[in-house]
Amino acid sequence: MIEEPTSAHADHEKLVLPEPPAELLAALDRGEAVAWRQPLAIRTYEADAPSVYPMYLDQRVYQGSSGRVYPLPFTEGVADEAVVREWDAVHLENEYVRLVVLPELGGRIHVGYDKTSDYDFFYRNNVIKPALVGLAGPWISGGVEFNWPQHHRPATYLPVETSIEVGEDGTVTVWCHDHDPFARMSAQHGVRLRAHSSVVELAVRLHNRTDERQSFLWWANVAARVHDDYQSFFPEDVGYVADHARRALTRFPAADREYYGVDYPGLAAEHPGADRIDWYRNIPVPTSYMIVDSAQDFFGGYDHAAGAGFVHWAERRVSPGKKQWTWGDAPFGHAWDAQLTDGDGPYVELMAGVYTDNQPDFTWILPGETKVFTQYWYPIPGIGVAHQATPDAAVHVDREGEIEASFAVTAQQAGATARILRGDAVLASRTHDLVPGVPLTVAAESPDGLDEGDDLRVELLGASGQVLVRWTPSIAAAEEPWVAEEPPLPDDIDSVEELYLTGLHLSQYRHPTRSASGYWNAALQRDPGDVRTNLALADRDYRAGDYGRALDRVDRALARLTRRNANPADAEAFHLRGLILRRLDRRIEAEQAFGKAGWDGTWAAASGLALARSLASRQQNRAALRVLDTLDGIVGHDTRRIALRAILQRRAGEHAAADALVADALVADPLDATLRVLAGRQIASDAGLMLDVALDLRDAGALDDALRVLGDAVALPVTAGGNVRPIAHYLAAQIHRSRGDDTRAADERRRAREADLTWAFPFGLDALDALEAALAVDPDDAVAHSLLGMLLYAHGRRHAATAHGERAIALGRADAVLLRNAALAAYNISHDDARAQELYERAIAAAPRDARLRYEQDQLAARVGRPTAQRLDRLRSVEDLVLTRDDFTIEYIRLLVAEGEAERAHRILLERRFRPWEGGEGQALAAWDATHDALGLARADPPASLGEARAQYTPPAARRDDGSTDYFATSLPELLLFARETGDDGR
C-alpha cells in the first residue's frame, strides 16, 4: 500500500518572500508603493504536457455551461512528485500590504498579506499543486484568479504579458494582458497599490477586438483560508441565496430548507446555529451560493481566531455578483483540499461577479466595445464582520446589549469622528487619528424600543466632514425570489417569440446539452420570415463559415425588416450582411452594407471600423480616413481604430503624427499588441498574439508588415497554448497569392505541409478561409484537408469535417491524430461503427504506446457492444499503459471485476495513486466499492491514495432513468467525445 504523507508535508514550508531591492527602500520608507520583478522559488507539481489530440467537449457540463475547450490543448495529468521551480513573479508592497502576482499562471494574485496584522487575507498556498479542475485541465487554489470570458479562466494555466507602471503619485500598477484562446478578445487587469493606502485595487479593461458580438462572464475568484472560526459576510439586506443557474434557493444566513441535500433546519434542531451557512464549519458538502438582490456594494470574510479578514467593494451597478463556494467541511472536501495543497487549506472562495449575479450568466459585449471597471479589496483588523463598507472604511455594529461600533480605515485619517446617532440625537461620539490596521470603537447605551426600522445610524466622518462609512439598519426582503425552470421542448412552446428567446438563452449561456437550433428551426417552421430567428441562425452559420447559407438567412430577414421601413431601428442585420459579404470577397457590396449599418448608433463603431478597414485594404486611404473622422470622439474607445489611423497617416507620409498618435494611445493602453508593433516595441513571445497582430495589419492593407509578423510567429517555439505555425504559413500564402505572387504562395504552402503539427488545432474564420484558399489552388493538400477537418468539426460543420478527414486519409496521410479524428467522426457523424473501429486500429498502429488512443478505443468498444471479456483481453498486454491514466485504470478495474478478477482490481486500487477530476468525482470510489462487493468484503472508507472520500449526500443524477439529460446537470462524467449526432447540428 502507498504510504501517505502527514497532513503537513515533510518538505512543506511557508513561502518566504524576498526583501524589496535596495533601490526601492527609500520610496517604501516614504509610504509610497513599490513594485519589482523577481523570481519566486515554489515547490511545484508540474502539469503534464497536453494531449496531442483535439478535445471536442462541447457537451461536457462544466460550471453549468459548455466545457468546450478546443482549440486549447487539453492537459490530463499532474506529476505525483514536487520539484522546486522558479516562477516569474511581480511583487508589490507599501507600508500596509504585500502582494505577489504570478504572470505565468494567468496573472493571478498569489499572495495578499496584511503587514499590520501579520495575516494573509488571501489564502496563501505554499505550493503550486494543480488538480484537474480547470476548463483546460490544471487549476490551482489560493490567491485571486480572474475568470474571463468563462469560468474557470481558459488561460488560468497559461502566461500573460506583464508590465509595471509607476505613477508620479507613488502608485504602482502591474498590468497583465492576454487574448482569450477562443474569440481572441483582449483582457487587461491591473493590480494596483497606492501610496499610504491598504486598498488593493484592480483596474480591468475588456476589449472585444473582433467584428462580432460576443458573450462573456467575469468573476474574481478570491480564496480565503478557513477553519471553524471563519465567517463569510454579506450585506444585511441579503435574505436569500441561490445555487448555480438559480436552480434552488434558501434563506440566508440561516438556511430554512434542504440545500445541496443537507437538511439544515434538522441539523439546527439538534445543534443550534448549525443552519448558519455563513460559517464554513456548518457546510458539510460541496456548496455554492450566490446572493440574490442586494442594494449594497460590499462583502467579505473574517477570521475570528486571527482577528482579521478582508472586504471586497465594487459598485453594484456593474458588479452585483457575490458568491461563496466551498468543498465542504467533511472528508469529501478535505480529500479535495489534499489534492490542491500539501499542508495549507482548507479554503473557501469568495467571488465577485461583474455584469452578472449568478453562474453561468453570460452577458454581451459589442464588436469594438471596451468595458472598464474596478474592484477593491482591503484587509480589516479586529472589528469583526463588516456590516457596511466603502473603499475608505468598514464598520461592524454590535447590537447585543449596548450599541458598539468598530471602525477600520484604509488610509490615515487625522481627526476622524466616529458617531452613533438616533435621528438628530448624538448618542456617542469620539474623535481620533486613525491608521490602517488599528480599529476604533465607540459605544452607546441601546435606546429603548430599538427595532430594525429605527432611525439609527453609525458613521465615521473625516476631518472635513466627509462621510467615510455610514451604517443604517437594513431589512432583508421577505418575498421569496424566483427560481429557474427548465424550458419546455420546442413542440410545447406556443409562440415564435418564446421559441426565439429560449434559443437565445441557450446560445448566450452556452448550454451544454440542449441546442438553440431546435428552437430556432421550430420558430421558422411556424414563421419562415421571422427577423430575429433568421438573424440568429445567420449569425450561427456565419460563425461556422457557412457563408452562403448565412447570406440567404440574413437576406430573408432584411426582406421583412425593410418591407415598409428602409431605415430599421436596429441595423444589426446590415452589419452581419457586411461581414458575410466581406468573407465572400464581395467587397463593394460589403462596404455598402457597413455604411448602412453605421446609420444606427449601436452599430456605428463596429461597422465604421469594418468599412474603414475595407477601404484601406483597397488603398482607398482618404475615404478610410473620412470614415474614421466620423467616428473619433463620438463612439467608444477602440485601439484597432487608432492603429488603422496610424497606418493611414504613414501611407500619407505623416510619420510624426502617426508616431505621436500611437505613443499617446500606449500611455492609456500600454499592452495593446498591435499599437506596440506599430511603435517598434517588442511584444510577448506569444505566437497566437503575433497571429492576431498580423491579421490586424492584413485587414488594414499593411501586407508587408503582416507578412513580417507572421514570420515572427512561425519562428517561435510551439507551446502548450497551441501551435499556429501551419496556419501562419497558409495565411502568408493567401496574402502572397492576393498580390499575384504565386511562387511565394506555393513556398508558404509547402512550409505549412512540412511544419510540426503538434497541438495545431486551427480555429476561427481567418484560418478557415486560408485553408479553403489553399485547397482551391491545391485540392490534394492532405495537411490542409486534415486541419480543415479539425476546424470544421469544432465549428459544428461535422459532415463537411468528416469528408475532409477522409480525403486526407485517401491522399496518404496516416498520422495518429488524423486517424483518431476520423474515427470519432465515423462513429458520431457517419454512424459507421466498423469504420470507426478500423480507424482506431490504424491510429494505434501509428502510435502503439499512446494510452489515450487505447482508452478511446476501449470506450468505443463499450459503445458498440464488445463483450467485457474481449475488451479485457485486449488490454492485458498493455496493462502498463492502462495504469498510466486514472480514467483508463478505473475502467480496467471495472472490467476485472466483471470478469471475476476482483483480487487483481483490489491490488491495483491499493498500489496506485489517483487524482479526481472535475466532473469525475466518485468514479474511483465507485470502483473501490464494486471491488469490495465482488470480494464479499464490507464496504470501507478508501485509502487517501484513492484521492477522494465519501460525500455525505448524493448529487442529482445527470442522466435520468429514461436516458435523457437533466437540464440543470452540473457535471456529466462520461467521455463525451462519443456522442451520436443527427439533424442540423451535425451539418
Automatic annotation (TrEMBL):
InterPro entries according to UniProt: DUF5107, GH-type_carb-bd, TPR-like_helical_dom_sf
Chain ranges of the DUF5107 domain: 69-380
SUPFAM superfamilies: TPR-like
Naturally occurring in which organism (per UniProt): Microbacterium foliorum
UniProt superkingdom: Bacteria
Coiled coil: none
Protein name: DUF5107 domain-containing protein
Record-level Gene Ontology MF annotations: carbohydrate binding
